[in-house]
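User: Please predict the structure of the protein below. I'd like the answer in structure-token form so I can feed it into my own downstream comparison script.

Assistant: Understood. Taking the following sequence of 252 residues as input:
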Amino acid sequence: MSILAVSTITISGCATFADMAGADTATLNASAAQSYNQAISEARSKGLLDTSSTTYRRITNVYNRLRPYADQMNQTGQAFQWQVSVIKSNELNASVLPGGKVVFYTGIVDRLNLTDAEIAAIMGHEMVHALEEHAKSKMGSQALTNLALGVGLSAAGVGDGGAALAQIGSQLGVGLPYSRNLESRADEGGLMLMARAGYNPQAAITLWEKMAKASSGGSPSFLSTHPSNAQRIQAMQKNLPAAQAIYNQNRR
């Protein structure tokens, strides 16, 4: 999908531009929820929806722990109907749709042997994407050329997941090509969110060290159009003291 460079438009300005074109928060969230529910229903029918494994329970537990803190951060003017679904796949991937519709692939947890805190780093990252309405900002920055939800949230590809997962990916927006700036904002916000929920933010560093090792032979789809692993780790180390202070305060 082509990306229009509109460097003079701020994130808030992009979101306002999308509002003017009819992609207001309530409408976008409702459209995303419909697409999400359809895709998850199809995943369930194909036996791809994980609802009982240890990995599923761990992801869900982390999600439940972060959710109240994410709600406290919500300044969109719309209450989110948060959902998380776990897809059986070796993909190193996770994604989110407007309104808080999160998807995790089992591969990112199992293949990287993630701790709960490292899962929280990913979950926090995805939640901040939704809370800061990055999908809406992206639509505005593209000057509304891809305003329709089905195009604006199109997939970047799901690799070896097969045809069925590719179809799910196209509905869920897996691997959305957010700009590096939005990714960095989600990294920073996710770091603070996980710290508020009582997860040691140091885990965000070890997460990306694992991702760097896993992507040494080629970038997984989760890293598509994202900052480099080294850049992410460097930025997180810069923000770590502030996050660590939040974490330490919440432990008292």
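That's the full token string. The CA atoms of residues 146 and 152 lie 5 Å apart.
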